Amino acid sequence: MRIMEIISGVGVNGAVVHCLLLTQELARRGNEVVLVCRHNAWIGQQLAHTANVTVVESDMRRWPLDELRRMAALARERQIEVINTHMSRAHNFGVFLQRFSGIPCVTTAHSHKIHPHWWFAHHIIAVSEQTRRYHLRFNRVRASRIDTVHGFVDVTRFRGLDAHTRLQTRADLGVDEETFLVGAIGDFLPRKGQLYLVRALPQLLERIPRLRLALAGSVRTESYYQKVRREASRLGVQEAILWLGYRQDVPQLLASFDVYTLVSLDEMFPVAILEAMAAQKPIVATAVGGTPECAAEVDSIYLIPPADPQAIVKALVELYEDPQKRAQLGQRAYETVCAHFTVEQQVPKIEAVFRKAIAAARR
To answer: How many CA atoms lie within 13 A of 49 on its CB side?
Structure first.
């Protein structure tokens, strides 16, 4: 197929990583892909020299109409058969481009947002069943116009994370091998719930004095980040927290953790969980949104209720006291991600949705 992927994210998040892996796999499978992204976007830099991929920069403005006309002309020149969009600005641009070019637009729902653009897309791909149900209920999308294709991960990126990698990364973090290192990787947003990890720390440190909490991620909401920092100071646990900021060494960082946590208040289908599963980490996660769907096999993720520091304490103490259970959870997580959520397994399902949209448009 000849596919135009459009994504409006400039930095790195779950939707951007999803689009990157999708584009790479589509190209590897012999499709011709035009990747439309914003100026200096991270994803454009990653794909600049990928075979079967052409990177085109765009500001994705809908008014004046010059950019829509330019992209429509490019799509016709490249004989694009389907447009696939990721993130709100790209969705809006894509559905307008559909009108200008006559090419069907398939939007990928990575979020829970009420927005008119869902009504105008030719078809929608939801990254989890929970996300599909949200758009059926709140955006009144017809069931015939939306399919679920679960998110995915490149498992090969997390192979070869041996004991040396673990020890070296921990040394770089200033953490010795006797420390019980609990990690969380995610942007600082209120829905990510880092606040509840901090609130669990006083009780955790009473039970596990050598515990340290590593928080990695960009600051997306400054007021929330400062609130988390103030709470750590108020509780007197700031010395037990490693504030790591944005990291590009996610596989190595995961290798250093004893347990990975994701205590969000809402999630669609978290790539971060899939990455931790691929790294064979025992995972404690809140049973919100599409996260339980990551646990496609029994005993692959330790699920807890959201906004509950006591549940966090109980889960982490239990795993600290039972190294065998940690190892079993990590192995089960790895087996589950390999069985259900690899990029090689999921991209053919997305191709099938594209073909369905192309056929319907031609009819």
So the answer is: 0
